[in-house]
Amino acid sequence: MTGIDMGAVAADTTAVLERLGAAARARGLAGTAERLAEAVRRLADGRIVVVVCGDFNRGKSSLVNALVRRPGLLPVDVLQTTGVVTTLTWGAQDAATVHLRDEDGGTRQREVPFTELADYVAESADPGNRLRAELLDLRLPSEALAGGTVLVDTPGIGGVFPEHTAVTTGFLASADAVVFVADMTSPLSAAELRFLRHAVTATTADPASSGPVAGPGGLLVVLTRADQADAEDRREMLDNTRAKLAGLIGDGDGGPAVLAVSTRARLRHLAAAGTRPDAPASPDGAADPTSGYPAFESALQHMLRRRRAGLLLARPLAEADAAVTALLQPLEAEREALARETDETLARLRASAEAGGREAAAARRSGAEWRTELRTELRKLRNALTGSLHDDLDAVWERICNELLHDDSLQDDADRLAAEVASAYAAVAGATAHRAGTELQAVVADFARQHRIGIGPVGAGRITAPGAVRLDPDLGSGRQPGPMMPVSRDGSFGASMGAAVGGMLFGPAGAAVGGAIGLVAGLLRGVAAVRNQELQARRRNLRDQLALVRSRQQRVITEGLRSLLDTAAEQAEKELDSLLRQQDESAQETVARLRTAAETTRAEAGARHEALNGEHGALVAAGTEVARLAALVAAVVDAPPTGEDADDMPGPGAAER
Length: 657
What we know:
Strand order of the largest sheet: 4-3-5-2-6-1-7-8-9
Strand content: 5-15%
Largest sheet: 9 strands, mixed
Shape: globular
Distance between the termini: 31 Å
Oligomer: single chain
Order of helices and strands: HHEHEEEHEEHEHEHEHHHHHHH
């Protein structure tokens, strides 16, 4: 940890933005003032979404309860599996809002007391989500939620409720950081590794851009139930987990932190200490030495500090630096003009004023051309992304037809098949949103370099997952009339053939035995044929239903991509227009100041020069402050994580839930 007070950095950044904004307004530079005001708003409204996810019954809700210091807040009984996404944000007092889906597809909100949370969150209390709850939003006073941090408790992947995988996979697109919860007593499964691959994708982007925290720096892996293993077993499991993650994301430094914790020990400590939920955490963890939570919270805070520094502060500081330049250029031009010594200098200044006017006019003309060029580049990107999306959707359909529909275990479990399909489409939605964000940043950055303008990154947003898939395995596949006819036919044929062969070889006794054997073989063959016909009919039925699902999912994801790109294009054009306006204002002010300076007498020039020195000095000081803050932000972004290992855990103890 760097020891840098990020709260103070944020406050200082806000202060310098406001000072520069006041200076811009005083000089009538509305474009610069508007950009600075928008930077202040982004800084004030910044939220960091931390998604807590993992397999069924791994202790995710217990871990969230421990992080916010509220034992018992979210239901954690083994039979009360989380079935609905729950968000936790800062609030001065406890409040909960459940978002319910209406039959017509709309949503409505209902305020509920904390004592009724299980009625909406727990699968056992609301099987199959009959209440149609889509989201539970909790507000509560907790130090863990300060500074805009949003914790998200998600349904478990896999397990006995496979549709939950689709919900959680779809929500990954909203993640700025991911805490993946696994089990110290069970190595990472293939399903967990598949999900982690999605999580790595969702949290891979440049931390200084508008995307999520960079690569593995946006992912923490936590092994719960650490008190059920001794030190040697813990080390072995930690090494095993790190090796699997290395195979997933590649070897090298900077991999995700893997930590061991005992949530049971943490919750016992909180209950015994009677800790207030809004109290600050113990800085050295001395009061809770056995749970592993001090190291976990330290790693989590490091990740969030990087997020705040890279996303919430780097961009506003870049905006402040650009504003300093825009405000200084006209002043410096006028100061140089006022310091003239000869008529030749005056003539040069007049020529500079005329050239400046021509540059301002050229910038205005270039604006229309640049907008057209930017639209063209974004249109090319839209076509490329749409093509890639169709390829991904075709790959999902190919997997459905060639793999999932031929998996016998899924033939008899339509709900599981539906969940696999929904999860596959949700993964495509998340991956497409991530790809769109990454390539949007590349297009905008290349455009900015080409035209030497400071256009910033464009936020891509997310593509909402298409939702649950419902399949009826018996729809349109009723049993055909006379299903026993082929069985009887094959049995009779087998009996006659067996009797004939047995009679030829062994006489009357052989005919009887052969007939019996042939009858059994024929019946078995007939039953197998009927079963195969039923499987083929069911497979055709499911394929027909999934073809309709494919059409709907493809439409929803494609429309989501179109909406995402439309919003991004509008944002990029707005950013370009704002920058051009800022440049135009600065150029026009420079021209006006040069003309005024050219007409100023030498006596007046001295007094005016003295007056400008104070304004110029204030802007230079602001630029120095911006550089100092930017260096602090860079130090936080580049700071290595600390305290990854938590091997000083207690010995085996009672099981934690």
